[in-house]
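Thought: the user asked what Aminotransferase class-III looks like in 3D. I have the sequence; next I should run the structure tool and report back without guessing.
Action: structure_tool
Action Input:
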Amino acid sequence: MHSHTYSGNPLGCAVALGVLRIFQTQSVLRQVQEKSQWLTTRFQEVLGENPHVGEIRHIGFIYALELVENLQDNRVGYKIYKKALEQGLILRPQGNVIYFNPPLNIKKRELSLAMRRTQEFIKEVLLS
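Observation:
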């Protein structure tokens, strides 16, 4: 028999059941679907015309912003990430792609602020 010390831990199982109850009673997945549709539209409105942003794609609530157009520096994604982190926004750089992965319980006003700040950081880094 093979097992792990964390397998079937009663406390972990109780926490998991509590999270599942919250997902059901607060319609978390439905809210995430609505926020995702809203965020997709907003990203296109805010960043769709930016010459430095190519494809804006997503799977569920994970968004990827592809950086393109005259990028001489292959660390530009990392620089945007660092600038955002200094201001309290966590993005994920992966080469020339910035990942935007908000928590499921984020409010629309917080999403809007994070998206505007992301746009500002992209402009700051690419225009400097």
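Thought: the tool returned a structure. Summarizing for the user.
Final Answer: Structure for Aminotransferase class-III predicted. The longest strand covers residues 53-59. The helical segments are 10-25, 28-47, 76-86, 108-127.
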